[in-house]
Amino acid sequence: MKYLISTIFIFLTVICIADNDIDSLTNTLENLSTVEKIDKLNEVYLDYKYNNPAFALKIATLSLDFAQQIDSISLQITPLISASLSLFYLDMYDSVLVTLNKAEKLTLQLNKADSLDRFNHFSDIENLRGIIQMVKGNYDESLYHFQKAIQTFAKAGNKTGEAKAYNNIAIIYRKLENYPNALKYYKNSLEIHESRKDSVNLGSSYNNIAIVYKLLNDTISFLEYTNKAISMNEKTNNIRTLSISYHTLANYYNDIRDFTNAINFYLKSLHLKKQLKHNKGLAITYNALATVYLEINQPDISDKYLDSALILTNKFDYIELKKANYQLRFRIDTSKGNFKNAFYNHMIFSNIRDSLYRYDVENRINELEAKYQSDKKEQEIELLNKEKEVNSNKLLVQKTINYSIIFILLFLAVGTYLLFRRFKEKQRINTLLSEKNKEIQEKQKEIEYQNKTLAKQANKLSELDEIKTRFFTNISHEFRTPLTLIIGPLEQILNKIKDSDIKNSLNLMLRNANKLLDLINQLLEISKIEKGHLKLKLQQCNLVKEVEYITEIFSSLASERKLQLEFKCTNSVIKGYVDREKFHKIISNLLSNAFKHTLKGKITLELKKSTSYGKVLIIVADTGIGIRKEKLPYIFDRFYQIDTNEAEKTAGTGIGLSLIKELVQLYKGEIKAESEPDKGTRFILELPVTLDFYSENEYDIISEANQDQNQILFSESEIITDTAQKESETKKSETILIVEDHSDLRQFVTQSLSSLYHVIQAENGEIGIDIAKDNLPDLIITDIMMPKVSGLELTEILKNDENTSHIPIIMLTAKSSIESKIKGLETEADDYLTKPFNVTELQLRIKNLLASRKKLQEKYRKSITINPSEVTTTSVDERFLSKVLQAVEENIDNSELSVELLCEIVGMSRANIHKKLKSLVNQSATEFINSVRLKRAAQLIQKNAGNISEIAYDVGFNNLSYFSRAFKKHFNMTPKEMMAKNHT
Question: If phi over 0 gives left and psi between -120 and 50 gives alpha, with beta otherwise, what is residue 651?
Fold first, then answer.
């Protein structure tokens, strides 16, 4: 039996602790003596006993093994008591009692010289026994053990032990709801810890006193001691007690219906309990989170946490929590309208409740039976003794037996009555449930009817939303086109006007036209948010750098207005997930608002971490005109304007702050304003920056490379552009087709390009397709939204037609969203430009596309080998060029091969094949045939495939003199010179 207890320890712990952890610890002890190893292991145990009881148990087992190796009684006791404490934290109560009995036997064997150690060990043993009896509900026996522990701790002079025993007595009084006595003993314990400056135990004492004050409804004292507990536990990293403090504080906020703080502290407690792997604690916290989210009408999130609670509860016998879980499941299903599941879960809850009631009755019966058996045995022993001593006591014994029988009969009668009463109660409940079930079925029918009615109404609302969204989209398109005709000519005139007064007036007109465009964009964005079309595109970035960048943009405006602009942040890095476009838009609008209403003084932008989990605070403050208190609740309403005289000087449309509010709500954030007239205004913005606040269908994760396509395309255009972008030379040989249904805009674009190119027009997509096929222009500019045939359909048709697939197409449209741009580029459009556009930018994009085409043509002309994929950008063009090449190569030795024969083989008209080849390789059909023949001849010469005459005939030349002249013109050397060069 010597090693039995250590074998049990190892078996219990091997399933949850990796051997390599303890092996690593053993290796560090290799060079120490056995006694030194035991002392070192006892020190290490203290570091893990609270935060990792499973690993602490492994350490205690190893220490016990070393003590047994040297057969030291005194050295075996400490690891046995340590192991008992770890087993308690692992909820293995029976094993605790077995281990304590072993420790007590060894303590009794200590010499009188070790009396101080004996007192300490006996104290620890009695204290742990008291804790086990308290957990089992045997409070009288538990108090007995704690009182013995206090006496022995006092004899040993162990003040820390006394404090622990006082603390445990307080727990019993708290369970008995004797809160004044509980507070008295908790404060006795606290007084000892404070005198010894025991940081670890101070945190636990503060937390326990806080709990009692909460039960006494003393909120001020509760919050005072809770904050003390959290501060001390964070300082000592006592995560077990810290998790309890967070949970207690969360319960308080839940009671006062401050659900935001309740969720925050429940999540903190949950995080720590996951580290401790404390299943009961985790299950309780999951249940609490599920309850809170149901209270704030988020049943889906509540459902998720309740599932986690049920999974853990099924792993251990905690029937009270299981009952609470199924009661909560019933509420969740009811809130979702899932009455079938709600009824099923209510039945489970009722069964658990009934089983608890039966369990209580059975416990009472078992306690009475145990008491009876105990009394009976004592009476029998007493009877035998008295028979030996005095026979006169027989009558008394008989009376006692009779009373016992009467007591048993009375007990059975009471038990039978209670069971019968419970049976009748259950029958009544079943009847009520049956009636309720019928009511639920009737209600369900009503709800189904209401649901159908609501569904019809929802469909009508959805249709109205669709109509409203289409209205905003269409009216935006209608506004953007006339704005293009205002902004475009204004920019052109500004480039030509020299008179400063006229130029200032024109700049004023241009600024206001751009302001009108911005208002249209804001209205359209609000419409998209209301419809639910906007989705967050989150990416991780350093928020400090993002806000610094926005601040720098406004620095020049601050200098111009002689205002002080300051950015505050104590951190150099704050990582988080944001939608950069919307994040920039929110802060930029807040800064713009501050500049608009600040005539002198200072504007401050501050960024810092929020006290709430996973959020940041952004504060924009100014020293402007301020807002009266009664006006503050309305500033985020759409089109609301403050009607003060000072505000009239800087009045806007009332859209900006409304858009900010909509974007912040989309972000699941909060924004509020504080202001005093003539002193300034503060906007306080709190935004989440972790993914925990969103469901997976509410966002997309994007990389930094996935930027706005229009910006990328424009920057590429600028790389190709050189200093000749403003040249006024005419290139009338190149033809541009303008396809636009708006006549004024079509004429404006034509006028802007007619000095450089030959321009033809089409008033819609259907006519544009016909003109493109008949004229084969060098480039097409088309709108997207047109009657009959849209720009997208036009692009798809032309790009899939062999005759027109080579023509570059620029889409010119009022649709500015990235989705519209991607859709346009997916149809193989070559470029995309948003209305209103800059005329110079349009001219540059045209020039760059035509220049790129010419570079490809030149590359082909200089190459000897023929590779169609290098001279085209679409599969249609590649197929066309491959087909023409194949036709020429298959007939290359035919001197009669003409353009007419090539057209017949390829199946295209002479004009179309000529235009197509001119666009792709800048050669006529005749030049192309001769080019292929000459290149094949050059290949044969380089391979020494024959003499010059044979090669000329092989590639279709009958006249050697003409072959030599054509060859020299193409390669700048005669066939003989190439052959001689090849031989050297």
Answer: beta
Question: What's the pLDDT band for 418 if we cut at 50, 70, 90?
Answer: confident
pLDDT-based confidence at 726, cuts 50/70/90? very low
pLDDT at 636 over 90: no
* Tokens representing residue 613 in the block: 């989990």
Of 46, 159, 61, 146, which Cα lies nearest the Cα of 102? 61
3-class DSSP state for residue 913?
helix
Question: Can you tell me the distance from the alpha carbon of 49 to that of 56, in angstroms, rounded to the nearest whole number?
Answer: 5
How far is 575 from 307, CA to CA, in rounded Å? 31
What is the identity of the amino acid at 249?
L
Residue 124 in contact with residue 96, Cβ under 8 Å?
Answer: no
Residue showing tokens 């010499």:
111
Q: What is the 3-state secondary structure (H, E, C) of 545-609?
A: HHHHHHHHHHHHHHHHHCCEEEEECCCCCCEEEECHHHHHHHHHHHHHHHHHCCCCCEEEEEEEE
For the record, the structure tokens of 103 come out as 């420790």
Task: Please provide the DSSP assignment of 737-801 as one string.
Answer: EEE-S-HHHHHHHHHHHTTTSEEEEESSHHHHHHHHHHH--SEEEE-SS-SSS-HHHHHHHHHTS
245 in Cβ contact with 230 (< 8 Å) = yes
Name which of 835, 833, 853 is nearest 843 in CA terms: 833
Q: Which residues pair with 811 in a beta bridge?
A: 782, 832
pLDDT in tens, 637-690: 655 555 544 444 444 445 667 778 877 887 788 898 898 888 899 999 999 988
Nearest in space to 75 (alpha carbons), one of 109, 28, 31, 49: 109
For 191, counting Cβ atoms within 10 Å of its Cβ (0-12 exposed, 13-18 middle, 19+ buried), the class is: middle
Q: Are the C-beta atoms of residues 832 and 811 closer than 8 Å to each other?
A: yes
**Can you name the residues that pair with 541 across neighbouring β-strands?**
576
C-alpha 837/C-alpha 840 separation (Å) is 9
Each residue's pLDDT tens digit, 431-478? 887 877 887 888 778 788 877 887 777 677 666 656 665 666 566 656
* pLDDT > 80? residue 734: yes
* CB distance 127 to 164 below 8 Å: yes
593, β-bridge pairs: none
Extract long-range pairs of 133-142: CB within 8 Å, 24+ residues apart: 134/168, 134/171, 134/172, 134/175, 135/93, 136/93, 139/172, 139/175, 139/176, 142/168, 142/172
Q: By C-alpha distance, which of 497, 600, 579 is closest to 537? A: 579
Using CA of residue 557, residue 560, residue 564, residue 566, what is the dihedral sign? Answer: positive
Read off the pTM.
0.34
Contact yes or no for 282/266 (Cβ under 8 A): no
Contact assessment for residue 678 and residue 607, using Cβ atoms and an 8 Å cutoff: no
Q: Which residue has the tokens 């289409």?
A: 470
Cα(671)–Cα(680) distance, integer angstroms: 17
878-915 per-position pLDDT tens digit: 777 777 878 888 788 777 777 787 788 877 877 777 77
**For the segment 468-524, what is each residue's pLDDT rounded down to a tens digit?**
656 665 666 567 667 777 877 877 787 778 777 687 777 778 777 776 776 676 666
Helix 115-136 / helix 93-108 crossing angle, nearest 10 deg: 160
**If you average pLDDT over every residue of the chain, what do you get?**
76
Sheet with strand 615-622: strands edge to edge: 564-568, 602-609, 615-622, 680-688, 670-676
Cα 469 to the chain's mean position, in Å?
Answer: 29
Q: Which among 945, 947, 966 has a CA at the least distance from the CA of 957?
A: 966
What ranges in 570-708 are assigned the alpha helix state H? Answer: 580-596, 645-648, 656-666
Q: Determine contact, residues 142/133, Cβ cutoff 8 Å.
A: yes
| Tokens coding 645 | 């005289």
